[in-house]
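Hi all, long-time lurker, first post. I run a small reading group and we've been trying to get comfortable going from sequence to structure in the token notation. Rather than ask abstract questions, I figured I'd post a concrete chain and ask someone more experienced to write out its structure so we can walk through it together at our next meeting. Sequence below, copied exactly:
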Amino acid sequence: MSSKTEETPCIHFLIVPLMAQGHSIPMLDLARLLAGAGPLVTYVTTPVNAARIRPIIDSTVFSGLSIRFPELRFPATDVGLPDGCENIDLVPSFDLYIPFMKALSLFQNSLKDFLRDDAAAGSPPPSCIISDNFLAWTTPLASSLGVPRLAFHGTSCFFLACTLLLQQHRTEIEGAVTEKESFAIPGLPQAIHVTKSQVSWGSNYSDPEWLILLEEAQAAERGSAGVVVNSFEELEPWYFETYRNLSGKEVWPFGPVSLHKENVETKAARGKASAVDKEHVLEWLNGQASGSVLLVSFGSVSSKSFRQIVELGSGLEAAGWPFIWVVKEAAADSGWPEVEEWVAEFERKVGERGLVIKGWAPQAMILSHAAVGGFMTHCGWNSTLEAIAVGVPMATWPHFADQFLNEKLVVEVLKVGVEIGVEEPTVAFAMEKGSEEVKVGREMVEKAVVRLMDDGEERKERRARARQLGRLAAAAMAEGGSSSENLNNIISYISENDKRKKLKNLEIQKI
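-- Answer (accepted) --
Happy to help. Here is the structure in token form:
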């Protein structure tokens, strides 16, 4: 992407991620891209989160990039969370999610202490804060520092535009349709049908504090100078234009960051340490035919019931294609012995046709392998964009939040996916042990896999579209591409603002 030049001004980006893998990973990539272009970058983290990305921190420091990783205290125990509960995927039960969000708010005290000590040590003050939009407190913090705040969204611009359109037409929608009745989102160039339960995920939770958090995040965005998104202009151009018009904000798409040039070691370490040796995974993939393997993975947060895992595995077995299945519920520290036992027997039954990974997987590395021809995904935006970036079609299994709209983008707008058929969101982020919930039966799994992976004309057309999007993604990230230029534009915008601020201060001193 952009390369450092002698003309790059001495500006300082302070990056404050939400402590959740789907948000922190692309913000880490953004931090490295910005540092590669010359500015000083401070990426705020905590001891537990830093340990997860230690190989990336070490390689980044070794490369000489001007980027720092302060490990600040996370106030987990202050709000009743277990010590070390510093990431949303470590929250042990659903009723502790609100306390975790409160801890994120209290985390600002650790950051303020760091900034004060950093200034006393003679470090340059921040020129800009790039913050996850959920961290509403970074807007008044940026104001107190006299610097712009750019809001990071870990979603597609399709989701952002649809959300604003739904808010704009809320009154007419509320009076016209029931909770589970399908309706077309007003204002779109094509008919995209959803239900209220699929697009109003905040209302699925009884605690009104959830809605307060969402409202605070929206207010924080209104107070931001602009928005950054891990996407690219060519993927969803109409939706970028619409979102800019509706929000009145400048929007800079800078991705897909999963295409950021890096070696296999670094790509395999994105997120946290893999639960399987990458060489073993590569050896297994190298033994498979091109485009024959299905990757099955559902992100770091949502868990499935034991019965749902059985149905999913039985569908994969019946479909007949080689697969890699990431089963985090079977990890050694998961505490689900019945899952571990069933998965062990399942591995014996499928033999070499399947590779089961029990825990975190090197997803970006796997998706980029030539043997992978399909991806069964929860439609989290990071995972969706990683597949788009390397031209891999998807079978879509959304759970909550933005995922149902991401499914619509993949299946109906881009036409690079097939839906499994989930209609209702999962109420809780994490499945409580003992739940019997089954949303997708084995026949649904088998049907979706066959449709995604068979050699028919439909698959060829879908694969051709996916490969074309992959080429557009690579072009966007290349020198002179749209995302590369947007990165330069972000730096130029902050540089000009910094110059104006310094000039104004000089004028005040002369008075």
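A couple of things your group might point at:
The longest strand covers residues 372-377.
Confidence is low (pLDDT under 50) at residues 2-9.
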